[in-house]
Specification:
The chain is mostly helical and 114 residues long. It contains four helices and no strands. The termini are far apart.
């Protein structure tokens, strides 16, 4: 599968994406503790979007790396049911990530158009 191969090659970015998520959240916390109302209104939402995009990309890379190859699965009846259940869970997670991505795209466009 091409997407799994791409995710395996991009797996080295996962710690950097997690670090950028933590930096984005810490920036928001520092803004709320020390920042003025104007700086909070200006920088809090973009930092939140940055942190959310980082966490989403990290989760997608982690999920796609863990995708099992169906050609290597044993051919027993229990193994095939287990494989179908794993594929169903994987498909539902992909649908959830697509929905979250679309919501983030909508929010990002709304923020940038202001």
């Amino acid at each position: 599968m091409h997407v799994s191969l791409l995710a395996q090659r991009l797996f080295f970015l996962k710690p950097l994406l997690n670090l950028s998520f933590v930096i984005g959240i810490m920036t928001i916390v520092i803004l709320f503790i020390n920042g003025s109302i104007e700086s909070q209104n200006t920088y809090a939402i973009p930092c939140l979007l940055f942190a959310t995009w980082s966490l989403l990309f990290s989760a997608i890379i982690g999920l796609l790396v863990q995708k099992t190859n169906t050609s290597k699965v044993n051919k027993g009846w229990f193994s095939s049911i287990k494989s179908k259940l794993v594929n169903l869970m994987f498909f539902s997670m992909i649908i959830a990530f697509i929905a979250i991505s679309l919501a983030l795209i909508y929010a990002t466009i709304k923020i940038l158009s202001l």
